[in-house]
Design goal:
Elements: E1 2-8, E2 11-17, H1 27-34, E3 40-44, E4 47-51, H2 57-73, E5 79-83, E6 88-90, E7 93-95, E8 99-103, E9 116-122, H3 128-132, H4 134-139, E10 147-151, E11 157-162, E12 173-176, E13 181-184, E14 189-192, H5 193-196
Protein name: Uma2 family endonuclease
Keywords: Endonuclease, Hydrolase, Nuclease
Domain Putative restriction endonuclease: 28-192
Length: 201
Amino acid sequence: MDLAFIEDPFGSIMVAMNIQASAIRTTEDFLRWNEGREGKREFVRGRIVEMMVNVSRNHAKLAYLLGLALGAKLDLAAFDIGSADFAVKTPAGVRYPDVFVDRAGGSGSDLAAREPVLLAEILSPASLAVDFGEKVEEYTAIPSLSHYLVLAQDEPRVWLWSRDEEGAFAKPDMIVGRDETVPLTGLGVTLALADLYRGIA
């Protein structure tokens, strides 16, 4: 019996699970093993992390509206846009961000993004510490990434990390209010919070 970790509102709790994962050593091992399995899990620093699957209505709406807004602004011949079922490799392993933008051109059978340029997470009580902690460190270390975006799910409020002209990520900009916009300079587009939070109080 192998050990996996479940992320919950109180932190990572180690639980014994019947997972035949002893041969998983690399991100490629994990991606092949994880393909087609039920549930949701990530691979972080050599361990399998079981994730909570259920999300709120606002979470689901935000992920959809963000993908929709990106699809309306970006050249879909140059970029692929998707959601949490497609992997992103990080220096620490494998994550499944809520929304991603990847440079197009990979194989149809790829299990992970090739050159992610934007990654987005939608906050929940269980994910707040990870989204503002581990994932900032991991995502901003991806060489191709231009932006990391974190969205509150109950009000028009986002945090935006952007790579500067020297190639570094500074502290995030917090953008608040339905009349505000999110400048994704690395992609050459701007998103309106009114569009992202349509139907959300």
